[in-house]
Specification:
globular, D-amino Acid Aminotransferase, Chain A, domain 1, five-stranded antiparallel sheet, 32% strand, binds guanosine-5'-monophosphate
Length: 234
């Protein structure tokens, strides 16, 4: 499978067409951005690590019966994926308070939540990906009610599977962001799941093993991603 045309370049990934109209190549870059791209940098070999971590996670989720866009890993930085039409929502699942939720509700970082929470943000860089509710989603036609039922069910189910997956690796899944796509009339998991898109804390110590190390200049960023890769590959 070869890359033909570049059809999209985002902050962390590039998408290329292939000779198969139903399949794309997703290429992982080392570029890192935070705070709606106000902070930019690179994390050495992040693309290689995230490609491997995301591949492992997609394989695990597929084994749990979750439909995903992942076909197979092609090379260090490339995976073959199903072509989808992305639902323009970031779906955020939280198990503990961190990041935006702390600022929104005045919670301490790490505060327990009585149940997992779901949030939806409208994928729109110019607006800074604003939080939206299901009425906004319906009013703007971003997804149908039927799609939202599927997306919410899948997101909560993925959360349960990933919590168990990471717990075995001595990692607590604090929160994460998902994106879904439409493919042949169905909703499937798309994008990536990696330390770029999750908050992962070492069980017991709470040490951060994710992109917050970049966002907050905590140092040892590459080492943290490498450690996640080492554990998911073990
Ligand atoms: P927060 O809303 O607290 O900033 O982020 C919640 C979770 O979703 C975190 O795990 C964060 O990494 C992820 N997340 C939210 N928005 C984005 C985004 O635009 N890009 C990436 N890579 N992750 C995001």
């Amino acid at each position: 499978m070869n890359k033909i045309d570049k059809i999209y370049e985002g902050k962390a990934k590039i998408l290329y067409t292939t000779q198969d109209p139903d399949l794309l190549i997703q290429y992982f870059k080392d570029d890192a951005t935070a705070f709606n791209a106000a902070k930019k940098g690179t994390i050495h070999e992040k693309g290689i690590m995230n490609n491997r971590i995301a591949a492992k996670i997609f394989e695990y989720l597929a084994g749990c019966g979750i439909p995903t866009h992942f076909e197979r890993q092609l090379s260090d930085r490339e995976m073959l994926i199903k072509k989808v039409s992305i639902v323009p929502l970031e779906v955020i699942v939280r198990n503990r308070a961190a990041g935006t939720l702390c600022r929104l509700l005045g919670l301490a970082e790490g505060a327990a939540l009585a149940c997992p929470t779901l949030e939806f943000c409208y994928k729109n860089d110019a607006l800074g990906d604003p939080l939206v509710n299901e009425y906004h989603i319906r009013a703007l036609g971003l997804a149908t009610d039927e799609e939202m039922t599927k997306i919410s069910g899948l997101a909560l189910s993925i959360n349960g599977h990933l919590q168990a997956f990471f717990r075995k690796l001595n990692i607590e899944l604090i929160d994460f962001k998902l994106e879904f796509g439409r493919a042949k009339g169905d909703i499937i998991l798309a994008d990536e799941i990696s330390p770029d898109t999750c908050r992962l804390w070492e069980l017991g110590t709470g040490e951060k093993l994710d992109k917050d190390r970049f966002r907050r200049d905590l140092g040892n960023i590459e080492e943290a991603y490498q450690e996640v890769l080492r554990r998911v590959s073990a």
